[in-house]
């Protein structure tokens, strides 16, 4: 890594400015008195965003030296989406820019690029940085690119760095980002626990809580008292929720089960109750199960579902009929189906009767998603194989049932008591799924075929049927299914992985005419079967994504679609044309990683990897910082979060309308 002196950087900025003035596009000459958004009358900003969309690093770099601070800032933010390490040295140079917003975006881009060669220079500039907001970004960027060797500096900040609120937040977020990469230490954990203290800023406490919850391999039992206090006393629900999750890593402490049970029963926020239920494990089953029983009838369906999932995952020494009886008294079908799965998972002579009861419910159910969940429940009992197989391949039914059915067949094969005599039947079911040409069936089947634990290479040695199915797919629409098939073909042929054919920007460029017509404060109302949700579209941060959403909305594309995925205290996802999560539009978008964070009510685009976004979108229930910089944020809920909290799988998107 090249180390620049301040003088050299000043010279570079001046020289670069002259170069840019000679060759870069200029703003349009006539600027209307009122413009829709910052792109509408500025061709340079459009050019920078287009270069970002096309992933062209070299033409972007001169804009970092533009005489206009707005363009330098835009270029730095654009490089956060490109994520090219060839830009590292010039982004480091931009950390000396006279404008603090440019420095902030450069730090953000360096974190997104995650180039470990930047850490030494980042440490030098963070000690010199005078603007607290920039220092906070630089510390977080360090967490994304620091080495294990220099993690100690992030854990115990050097004395020459001011200990203000921005620094504390930056340190906490830096330790969080490092923890997601598997970099931690006992000293780092101890510091995170200290940062949970109520005198510290809310941002730091949220970061510390999430770091302790999501960093793998931690033993937090020595900190059980401090964690329990934070989980019960912190004023912010996101801190309590994160710490409740972290308490699962302190399960050996004798006080933890009672704390989690109390949170599940009494916390005022449903997201904390969900986190407490999820933190409960098999070892604490007896002392917490009464709280989980009570949660099955919680007013919030997400809490009730989390309780049912607790029993499905951890119930021991319980008669299956107990769960069957409780399930039959529940009104919420998803909670009921999950508890029926728990009933079927229990060994005992009543298992056959429980299986028949679920099959009868399946025959009587009219909601396709409920039927799918009942197939999912039957995935607990290998004796249901023939029933599930028939349901999966029933002609002329909803594709949703085929998707759930194939997933249930795979779950059946993973059961430890699945009979070896039926291995060939399972292999033939997978082959049949691939040959249907349905993207969900063939994608799921292909994933199973390459699972080394299932040893299917012997039963399905010839990949010709996979090649046939792959060649009938249409790209980029069927990219996810193509990926699954190609990985399996490579697995069977024992060859290196084939690169994914991500669609180039030229196949679907940003529609600048449409972008220019969208007001910066444009809102959309999502009318659902549970009520209305109002979004503010972020056209200035994600112009390509917003333009796509607006175009699809105007076409009525989303009208009548369903929310097909709802994960408690995480996301509600919809917009799939198939209704099962395997659908797409006929084009892909490139990821737009503007400087936005996944807080409560952030609206992001689903993807199968970077630059594969399409029509599906999700709304977060709470801060989910592990999604930051990985999924495009194109909107924010500004009204209706109480509706979002009630959404469940199968709820309908009646209509989306653009409003003023």
Automatic annotation (TrEMBL):
The protein, known as: peptidylprolyl isomerase
One Pfam assignment: HEAT_2
InterPro entries xrefs: ARM-like, ARM-type_fold, Cyclophilin-like_dom_sf, Cyclophilin-type_PPIase_dom, Cyclophilin_A-like, PBS_lyase_HEAT
Gene Ontology terms, MF aspect: peptidyl-prolyl cis-trans isomerase activity
Superkingdom of the organism of origin: Bacteria
PROSITE patterns documented for this protein: CSA_PPIASE_2
Enzyme Commission code(s) on record: 5.2.1.8
Keyword Isomerase on entry: yes
Signal peptide: 1-29
Keywords: Isomerase, Rotamase, Signal
Domain (PPIase cyclophilin-type) ranges: 531-648
């Amino acid at each position: 890594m090249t180390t620049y002196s301040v003088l050299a950087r000043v010279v570079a900025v001046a020289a670069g400015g002259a170069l840019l003035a000679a060759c870069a596009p200029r703003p349009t000459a006539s600027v209307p008195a009122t413009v829709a958004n910052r792109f509408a009358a500025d061709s340079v900003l459009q050019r920078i965003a287009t270069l970002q969309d096309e992933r062209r690093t070299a033409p972007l770099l001169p804009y970092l030296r533009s005489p206009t601070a707005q363009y330098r800032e835009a270029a730095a933010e654009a490089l956060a989406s490109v994520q090219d390490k060839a830009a590292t040295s010039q982004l480091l140079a931009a950390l000396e820019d006279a404008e603090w917003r440019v420095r902030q975006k450069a730090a953000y881009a360096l974190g997104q690029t995650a180039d470990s060669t930047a850490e030494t220079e980042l440490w030098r500039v963070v000690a010199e940085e005078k603007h607290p907001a920039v220092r906070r970004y630089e510390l977080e960027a360090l967490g994304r690119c620091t080495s294990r060797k220099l993690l100690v500096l992030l854990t115990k900040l050097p004395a020459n760095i001011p200990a203000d609120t921005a620094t504390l937040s930056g340190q906490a977020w830096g330790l969080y980002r490092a923890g997601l990469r598997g970099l931690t230490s006992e000293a780092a954990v101890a510091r995170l626990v200290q940062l949970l203290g109520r005198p510290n800023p809310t941002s730091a406490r949220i970061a510390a809580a999430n770091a302790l919850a999501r960093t793998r391999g931690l033993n937090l039992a020595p900190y059980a008292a401090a964690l329990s206090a934070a989980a019960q006393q912190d004023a912010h629900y996101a801190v309590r929720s994160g710490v409740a999750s972290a308490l699962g890593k302190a399960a050996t402490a004798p006080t933890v089960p009672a704390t989690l049970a109390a949170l599940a029963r009494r916390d005022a926020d449903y997201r904390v109750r969900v986190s407490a239920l999820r933190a409960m494990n098999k070892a604490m089953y007896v002392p917490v199960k009464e709280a989980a029983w009570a949660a099955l009838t919680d007013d919030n369906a997400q809490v009730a579902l989390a309780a049912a999932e607790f029993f499905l995952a951890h119930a021991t020494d319980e008669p299956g009929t107990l769960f069957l009886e409780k399930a039959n008294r529940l009104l919420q079908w998803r909670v009921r189906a999950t508890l029926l799965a728990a009933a079927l998972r229990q060994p005992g002579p009543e298992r056959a009767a429980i299986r028949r009861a679920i099959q009868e419910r399946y025959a009587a159910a009219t909601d396709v998603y409920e039927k799918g969940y009942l197939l999912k429940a039957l995935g607990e009992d290998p004796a249901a194989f023939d029933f599930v197989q028939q349901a999966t391949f029933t002609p002329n039914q909803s594709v949703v049932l085929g998707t759930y059915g194939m997933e249930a067949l795979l779950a059946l094969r993973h059961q430890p008591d699945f009979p070896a005599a039926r291995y060939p039947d399972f292999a033939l079911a997978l082959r049949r799924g691939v040959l249907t040409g349905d993207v969900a069936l063939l994608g799921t089947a292909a994933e199973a075929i390459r699972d080394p634990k299932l040893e299917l290479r012997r039963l399905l040695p010839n990949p010709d049927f996979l090649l046939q199915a792959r060649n009938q797919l249409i790209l980029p629409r069927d990219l996810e299914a193509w990926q699954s098939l190609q990985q399996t073909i490579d697995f069977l042929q024992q060859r290196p992985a084939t690169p994914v054919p991500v669609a180039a920007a030229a196949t679907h460029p940003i529609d600048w005419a449409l972008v220019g017509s969208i007001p910066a404060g444009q809102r959309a109302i999502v009318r659902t079967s549970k009520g209305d949700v109002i979004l503010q579209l972020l056209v200035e941060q994600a112009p390509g994504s917003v333009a796509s959403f607006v175009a699809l909305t105007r076409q009525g594309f989303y009208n009548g679609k369903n929310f097909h995925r709802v994960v408690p205290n995480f996301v509600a996802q919809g917009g799939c044309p198939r209704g099962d999560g395997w659908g797409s539009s006929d084009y892909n978008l490139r990821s737009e990683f503007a400087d936005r964070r996944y807080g409560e009510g952030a609206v992001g685009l689903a993807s199968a990897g970077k630059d594969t976004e399409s029509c599906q979108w999700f709304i977060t229930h709470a801060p989910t910082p592990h999604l930051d910089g990985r999924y495009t944020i194109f909107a924010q809920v500004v009204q209706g979060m109480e509706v979002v909290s009630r959404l469940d799988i199968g709820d309908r998107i009646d209509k989306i309308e653009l409003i003023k």
